[in-house]
Specification:
Layout: E1 26-35, E2 39-48, E3 51-61, H1 68-71, H2 76-95, E4 98-105, H3 107-111, H4 115-126, E5 131-132, H5 135-146, E6 156-162, E7 167-173, H6 181-184, E8 185-191, H7 195-202, H8 209-227, E9 240-244, H9 246-256, H10 263-266, E10 270-272, H11 273-284, H12 288-293, H13 305-318, E11 323-327, H14 331-342
Parallel strand pairs: 1-4, 4-5, 6-9, 9-11
Antiparallel strand pairs: 1-2, 2-3, 6-7, 7-8, 10-11
Amino acid sequence: MKSRLWKPPAQPVAKLRAFPPVEALDAGIYGALDLGTNNCRLLIARANPAGFRILDSFSRIVRLGEGLGSTGRLAEGAIGRTIDALKACKERLDERRVGNRRLIATEACRAAANGEAFLDAVFQETGLRLEIIDRQAEAELAAAGCAVLMSRSAESVLLFDIGGGSTEVVWLASDRYGTSIGQRIRHWTSLPVGVVTLSEKHGGIDVSHGIYESMVEEVAAMLRPFSDGIDSRRLGRNFHLLGTSGTVTTIAAMHLKLPRYDRRQVDGLWMRTEEARQVIADLMATPYQRRADNPCIGSDRADLVIAGCAIYDAIARTFPAEHIRVADRGLREGILMQMMMRNGVWLADRRARP
């Protein structure tokens, strides 16, 4: 991935492109930005009676957390890539005159010694003010964004979101136990491991079965304090996994043998656990360059996908289930729903899909 060294802006903040005047913003348009360890994602939508209609979206792999595990700091090259992506997000927010916005940063900014300084630089260069959310808020937002895909017949699910630097895991009860996400969350944890940190530690280009099993066991050990607090008998009828992340959507796309990634076919897909395991076995047998050449993986993810599979595998072995449902949605959708509920344009018990 090409990168440039980041340098403080030469011009003062006052000379940057101004934020649209308040009276020019559209109060009916909502924007949610999620800056993670690996990706920068933006979603812009308008509320409607069925849920919300997506007006614009943006996603770019920036690897903000590159090298963070060894240095404890965000690298200059990663900062430069990320600020470039955030400038593109700023342009889209301004063009759509987004009146309701929430811009969040997660694990990389939480963990980095220069995380706050980075956000100050982001504001200076782009005018965007990002907030660092804690791990509990991240887990709740992921649950809010994905809960609609939980089977109506399931008493509970194990929802997980594999990120670049952390993995959120939530034991979520059926909406029969409450209307709000907070009422339905029975137990949650945030594991300090993601696809970027795990692949940087163990390697992601040539991964032997021994290395893969070491990654699985490392994640499983982190998961044990959480799983020990859950009585499997309380998982209830029709328990299933519900996964959101580039890892699970890639597994789904590979299972479907898509010539290129198609969100419409992936979001909401049901897979049997054995089918997911077969995809992982195929990926393990696929050389790095062939992974990079696959349009559903690409060069940006080719060295991360095996680490993501190991995280998923640790979760699936710890919480055996016959099926997993795949979600191509998550934090951004959760942010949009929360803002809309706060403004009275989203009903807490609405089950319509975005």
